[in-house]
Amino acid sequence: MTSLTDLSLSQMQAGLTSGEFSSRDLVQAALDRITRLEPSLHAFLHLAGPRALKQAEAADAQRKGQSSRPVSPLLGIPVAIKDVLTVEGLPCTCGSKILEGFIPPFTATSVQHLTEAGMIVIGKTNTDEFAMGSSTENSAYGVTHNPWDLGRVPGGSSGGSAAAVAARYVPAALGTDTGGSVRQPASFCGVTGLKTTYGRVSRYGLVAFGSSLDTVGAFGRSAQDVAAVFSAMAGHDPLDATSAQVAVPAISLEAATGSKAEMPLGGLKIGVPKEYSIPGTQPAVEEMTRAAVDVLKALGAEIRPVSLPHTEYALPVYYIIAPAEASANLARFDGVRYGPRAPARDMPEVFYRTRGERFGPEVTRRIMIGTYALSAGYYDAYYGQAQKVRTLIRRDFEAAFQEVDLIAAPTAPGTAFEIGAHANDPLAMYLEDVFTLPANLAGVPGISFNVGFDQRNLPVGLQLIGPYFREDLLLCAAHAYQQVTDWHVRAPAL
Ligand code: GLN
């Protein structure tokens, strides 16, 4: 018998509409499954059980009372939120001891849009501290385990959200992507993850890491489910000065470019960048992603080589810019404005004891690197230079998108690694992001979805990268792929 948690978002929508089950049933089923499996997964930092049940009852009442007026398609559907996005009244720790016990007084715009559409926040998911990492091992509250292999990481930093969707706790979840933190965990957990265009989704209520790179994204089991969440949360927000004044199109997934039903991607040009073939990529990743590109070709897409010549500089440029911005953003956590305060004799001691005791090693490392890169004598040599190279990386994409509609590449060089494998080697951890960082530096959107499994039965993700504001194209292409394959419906045995 399929249980309610097995249902995808679209199936939940259908059952709620037909009255087969209620939102309360869905939320209760999610909470039961979470209670049973959390001891082995640890995807959540906080659960909002009683509050979610109450909201579900209100959603059910609304659905009954409004039979004449159309209800929002997301009404009554559970969602999980990465713990770097604020939800009024729920703790927001960012996976850090420096925000232990902090309860924000307002809700992030992205989350607000979802709750206004009727979605029900089940809880806040685990993350690397302040979203710095690729495995959730940097969370001050313990690692999340990959649902496909409990000895391995779920990816990061949005590993809790990716694991929550893969484990069938919830049909959808929000994450954030500064350098790959939606796409890489989506790849490791075998789910679909969308990184939005910079400025597409409001950053208001997202605790800032790298302000010029941070984006809010969504996880689901399919492109169709992700499209529903994306459409609800995107759009201009006066509360975020970098939010774009660009209309969000209604996404019609069937309406890719092709006219013939069996060739839905007919006329679409997909570029395969030669710079994304690098030594060290696992053979299974190469093989599966190549096979996935063949499927896209069979669906009508024209595949051609493209070049993004400055790709090799993305990693060093990111690891100057992201820490530089982080060092400035994290200055606000000083034991005075937010969270707990270390006992001290005077103000300077408050600052350095609170920060010294409560930031973890990776955050401390980034603050030191960032402060150094921004310091008077080194600004031009590091930060200024990195910004110039960033422009070249952005231009690479602009030039490539003159020739092709989308770019295809692996999401990550490997599948999920063992917990502890990179524990003493931050550089090895940084290398996890080689294929995802360039899109953040350019600000363009990307999607990762499951295209097979390696010999250990670990999911492999394909990444598609699109031009600015073309999330619709990414979702259409992923949807077309998912219509003719079934990798995305496979579930881990838990
Ligand atoms: N893994 C990258 C980092 O550690 C990206 C993180 C992210 O996208 N939030 O910075």
- Number of strand segments: 11
Order of helices and strands: HHEHEHEHEHEEHEHEHHHHEHHEEH
Helix content estimate: 25-40%
Please state the average pLDDT score: 96
- In percent, how much strand structure appears in the residues? 5-15%
Chemical compounds bound to the protein: glutamine
Give the CATH topology of one domain: Amidase signature (AS) enzymes
Number of helical regions: 15
What is the strand arrangement across the widest sheet? 1-3-2-4-6-5-10-11-9-7-8
CATH hierarchy, class of one domain: Alpha Beta
The major β-sheet equals:
11 strands, mixed
Principal-axis shape equals globular
- How does the helix and strand content classify structurally? alpha/beta
Q: Any idea what the radius of gyration is?
A: 21 Å
CATH H-level name of one domain... which superfamily? Amidase signature (AS) domain
CATH architecture of one domain: Alpha-Beta Complex
Spatial gap, N to C terminus = 16 Å
List keywords for this structure.
single chain; 494 residues; alpha/beta; Amidase signature (AS) enzymes; eleven-stranded mixed β-sheet; 15 helices; binds glutamine
Structure description:
The structure is a single chain. The chain has helices at 9-18, 23-41, 49-65, 109-116, 159-166, 183-189, 223-233, 283-298, 314-329, 347-358, 361-374, 380-403, 426-431, 437-442, 471-484, and strands at residues 44-47, 78-82, 120-125, 172-176, 192-195, 216-220, 269-273, 302-306, 406-410, 446-453, 459-465. It has 494 residues and is of the alpha/beta class. It has a domain at 4-262: Amidase signature (AS) enzymes, CATH 3.90.1300.10. An eleven-stranded mixed sheet has the order 1-3-2-4-6-5-10-11-9-7-8, sandwiched between helices. Helix 2 packs antiparallel against helix 3. The structure holds glutamine. Glutamine binds at residues 131-134, 157, 176-181, 209, 322, 433.
